[in-house]
Amino acid sequence: MSLVEAQGLTKIFRRPEKDPGLRGSLKHLVQRRFKEFRAVDGIDLSIEAGESVAYVGPNGAGKSTTIKLLTGILVPTSGTVRVAGAEPHTDRMVNARNIGVLFGQRTQLWWDLPVRESLALLRDMYDLSPAFYKQRLERLDDVLGLADLLPVVARKLSLGQRMRADLAAALLHQPKIVYLDEPTIGLDISVKDRVRQFLRELRQDGTTLMLTTHDLGDIEDVCERIVIIDEGRKIFDGPLAQMKDRFARVRRMRLQLAEPTPVEKLAERLPDVEVVAGDAPTEVTVTFDRFTHTAGQIIAGVLDVVEVGELHLDEPAIEDVVRKVYAGELLRIPEPGPARDAAERSGERA
Amino acid sequence: MRRTLRIYRRSLGAHLRAVLEYEADFWILVVAGLLFQVLNLIFLSAVFSHVPALNGWSFPEAVLLAGTYGFVNGLGPLFFEGTWRLAGKINHGELDYPLIRPAPVLVQVVSAGIGMHGVGDLIGGGAMIGYGLANSDIAWSPARIGGALLLLAASATILLSLIVLGNAASFWVGGNHPVFAMTLIRTGDMAKYPLSIYGVAVRATFTVLVPYAFISFFPASWLLGKESAWIGLLTPLVAVYCVYLARLIFRQGLRRYDSAGH
Amino acid sequence: MRPYWGLLRMSTRRILTYRLNSLILWIGGATFLAGSLAVWHALLSQGEIGGYDWDQMKAYLLIGWATGAIGSAYGDWWMAGRILEGHVATDLTKPLDYQWARFSEHMGGLATEFIAITIAATAIVTFTGGLVVPGPAQALLFAASFLLVAPLKFAIAYITTMACFWTQNFMGVSWAKDAIVTLFSGALIPLALLPAWLAGPAAVLPFASITATPAALYLGQATGWEALRLLAVQAAWVLVLWWGARLVFRRALRALTVHGG
Ligand SMILES: Nc1ncnc2c1ncn2[C@@H]1O[C@H](COP(=O)(O)OP(=O)(O)OP(=O)(O)O)[C@@H](O)[C@H]1O
Ligand SMILES: [Mg+2]
């Protein structure tokens, strides 16, 4: 059995339907009306020990809600969750020792206390031995540069400092599974790099990792698997490389031509392909669909017209891919594999 | 249980250390707490300079009563202050982290703060209790001393349970402020006077519905041997009931907890 | 004048938004009132004390509570918060007189406070059967004095919040102020019933003008020249505290620059 197993995970929030103002509030007291809202809608997910999973989707897709369901903060409306054999919301205490959680938008440090005191409180809650605690602090200090932060009251930390201290707090007890909800939100580039470096190390240590983020740079080196959700449903689940492969239909080739050539001539030779002039008269960019043309066909076509000096094939950036997935552009492609049923499901909804 | 107590103690200790960093604030709060007890005392002494008794309660007896209420009220800020932040925590989804830690959520909530004005209440209330006891006619015996301590502990338990219960209502009421709890606890202030001065509706409410009368009136009546003193001996039972109710309601509330949308 | 009027209206709106906070304050006051009423009812069942019978005491307690409610909706908390959170610097850059601006906001609470007072008065009349009604002259004097309570309480609250320039914690300061005001204004117990060592200071402090003066005028304990004298004293305190507050504020600003904001 997988370390994390979720089946048909669903969370429905009831939102009070209330007219604005005092009158609305009073009316709501008498006549309670609610609107149901499916934040997470039948998600199946299993994560093996040692895996690191990126969990992405547009704003409001249900990422944070899923994490809250997996960690036992919320009780699922329907569906089951098992984490290391325990049901998180009923075996709260057992589950708590296995997991570390960070919500990037919120701190778990006690607001009025120095960071050191917060960490010491967590030590007591997790029953860490003094020796283990000391060793962990040293390790976390190495990667996160904690030492300067320890005497500072949480309220006075800058965002980047707070996030480092929060990461330490989430990982102090060396949890088996770590859930990170937007761990790099609002950080500057240097702190971001530091956090990413830390995540890589975490993964090398064999920690199971689930990470949500809007900054796909976070996942590039850290996660090998990506799960994309939208409107509470899973629309892709597979290796990162496979996603690029499958969804990145569009490839771009930049060519340095031996002599200036009008783009029309090239376009004539290459129907169904977009040819755009570059900055210099000898530069063109050819954008083509990987499923209808191969790179070889394109080069051959260009060579018919003019000699080529240099060429460069752009790697598909996951940003581009994900952007298109969000925009719903890539779901219409019928394809074999798990992505297809997701596409069909979402088609039904449309 | 031992582990839970240790976590509670450590958490409270950490907050105490943080508060003591600001020495001036500490003293201002202690003095403010004390002033309110002094106010009660001045009121009683002014009134009793014109009448010999208030519904059969002499001045020292009334002081004992008000002192007990003040003393017990000082325990809230000192030991349960964090409870008052529950409404805000629910509203902002800040119970997420307590829920993922291996410690009871209630303990984490209750110990997340400390209010030093409680010290003033304890000193003021304690002094009033001392004065009241020294000047009242009580036949002391070991049983009586033990009983008095037991009743005091029970009355403190009742008040702290009411604080938890009132604040746990925030799971249903919503909003950023513990309006319900504030109303519940402030209404109890009426219990610093002998219950017999109130109309029958208030008396019934304070005895049966919300047991404010067991915080100071019935225990003091037992100690002073007033009429129907035996009711005071029910205080521990009421305390057990209140603890049970508070825990139940807190648990039920926690199941409704929906986090917040971010 | 226009900008101050705007501040006043804005303050009313804010109080309506945070009506729950105001409600909490008033509920606290209401239980205090209920407790006092019950105690006095029991005490006065034997006969009058210090010249107060039950009907008069009821009116007295209501006035004590009403004068306590004035200015409580706006609360010194809001003013203090702006200082503690450093917004005072922004406020100072506005082309307004700081004190008048805060006073306008203070007055913005009056509407809601009057509603609360009306409710309390109605409750007392309903549950305890009637209330002493003053004659027309007394009523007029009382109204004048009641109006002066608003600026008087403002000045006291305003001066108290200046403590925030020196301390971080306003809660203790505010409570201490409340305790002192409650005692020396007569809201706790009529000043005539206080022991001499407290009645002495109460007579010379400004707080008596908050509760004792309006109550004395309402109940007709002071009439003729004595009534006018009380009113004059009250007005004098308003002026003294108003200008005193300006002095304190100037001092406080110096503290602000010393601390570096
Ligand atoms: N406690 C709640 N009560 C009601 N609705 C909620 C609650 N929490 C989340 N929602 C709703 O559920 C949906 C999913 O929210 P969620 O926080 O899981 O999104 P997300 O994928 O994390 O988005 P983001 O990228 O913006 O963080 C949103 O529409 C949100 O409004
Ligand atoms: Mg989110």
Which tags fit this structure?
heterotrimer; A: 350 residues; alpha/beta; Rossmann fold; Alpha-Beta Plaits; 2 domains; 6-stranded mixed sheet; 4-stranded antiparallel sheet; 13 strands; 26% strand; globular; disordered C terminus; B: 262 residues; mainly alpha; binds adenosine-5'-triphosphate; binds magnesium ion
Can you offer a commentary on this structure?
The complex is a heterotrimer of chains A (350), B (262) and C (261). With 350 residues, chain A is of the alpha/beta class. Chain A has helices at residues 21-30, 63-71, 92-98, 115-125, 130-144, 159-171, 189-204, 217-220, 240-247, 263-269, 295-305, 318-327, 338-349, and strands spanning 4-16, 34-47, 52-56, 78-83, 99-103, 177-181, 208-212, 225-230, 233-239, 250-257, 274-277, 283-289, 308-313. Chain A has a 6-stranded mixed sheet, with helices on both faces. Chain A has a 4-stranded antiparallel sheet with strand order 11-12-10-13, with helices on one face. Chain A has a 3-stranded antiparallel sheet with strand order 2-1-4. In chain A, a hairpin with a 2-residue loop joins strand 8 (225-230) and strand 9 (233-239). In chain A, helix 5 packs antiparallel against helix 6. The two termini of chain A are 35 Å apart. With 262 residues, chain B is mainly α. Chain B has one domain. Chain B is built from 13 helices and no strands. Chain B is globular and about 60 Å long. With 261 residues, chain C is mostly helical. Chain C has one domain. In chain C, 76% of the residues lie in helices and 0% in strands. In chain C, helix 3 (54-69) packs across helix 11 and helix 4 (75-84) runs parallel beside helix 8. The longest helix of chain C has 36 residues, at 224-259. The two termini of chain C are 29 Å apart. The model of chain C has no long low-confidence stretch (mean pLDDT 86). Chains in contact: A-B, B-C. The B-C interface holds B 22, 24-25, 28-29, 31-33, 35-36, 38-39, 42-43, 45-47, 49-51, 54-55, 117, 175, 177, 179, 182-183, 186-187, 189-190, 192-193, 196-199, 202 and C 20-21, 23-24, 27-28, 31-32, 34-35, 38-39, 41-43, 46, 49-50, 167-169, 171-173, 175-176, 179-180, 182-183, 188-189, 193-195, 198. Bound molecules: adenosine-5'-triphosphate and magnesium ion. Residues 63-64, 181 of chain A line the site of magnesium ion.
